[in-house]
Amino acid sequence: MNNTTWEINGLTFELDLDDALDMERYENAFKRLQEKAETLRKNADSASTKIKNTCTAYRNLIDDVFGDGTSAKIIPPDCWKLRNHEDMIASFMAFIEAQAATNKARVTAFTAKYKPVGRTSTK
Asked: What pTM value is reported for the model?
């Protein structure tokens, strides 16, 4: 297992934040989530509607990143328990944070290794 593999409920999904296309999909998914969040809040007239809207938003985020139907593989489509959806997002974000930290450490080590040392001006 490498840091580009998210594992949840015995399933694995690939996302490499060093890959421009994967990063673009990830960024666009969060933009869509932010755009929809305000509308979903305004259109929720009851607690149950708020829960369903939140679950739907979380499902859409995962589907936008990994492809349609991915969230249904993780959580059955007839499950509307907010806790299950929060757990899915928490797991996903922990995966993202771990990958970002690993990537940052790798880039820092790479740039330190090839940073010019003692370079002086030729003026």
From this structure: 0.84
Residue among 20, 32, 17 at smallest CA distance from 62: 32
For every residue of 37-88, DSSP letters joined together read: HHHHHHT--SHHHHHHHHHHHHHHHHHHHH-TTHHHHHS-TT---HHHHHHH
What is the spatial distance between Cα 43 and Cα 52, in angstroms, rounded to a whole number?
11
Distance (Å, rounded) from C-alpha 32 to C-alpha 58?
11
DSSP lists the bridge partners of residue 6 as: 13
Say how far residue 61 (Cα) sits from the centre of its chain. Answer: 8
Each residue of 7-50: pLDDT tens digit? 999 999 999 999 999 999 999 999 999 988 878 777 778 999 88
Q: 103: pLDDT confidence band, cut at 50, 70 and 90?
A: confident
The token pair at 9 is 């409920």
For the cut 80, the answer to whether the pLDDT of residue 119 exceeds it is no
CA dist 98 and 104 (Å) reads 10
Residue 6's nearest CA partner among 81, 62, 49 is 62
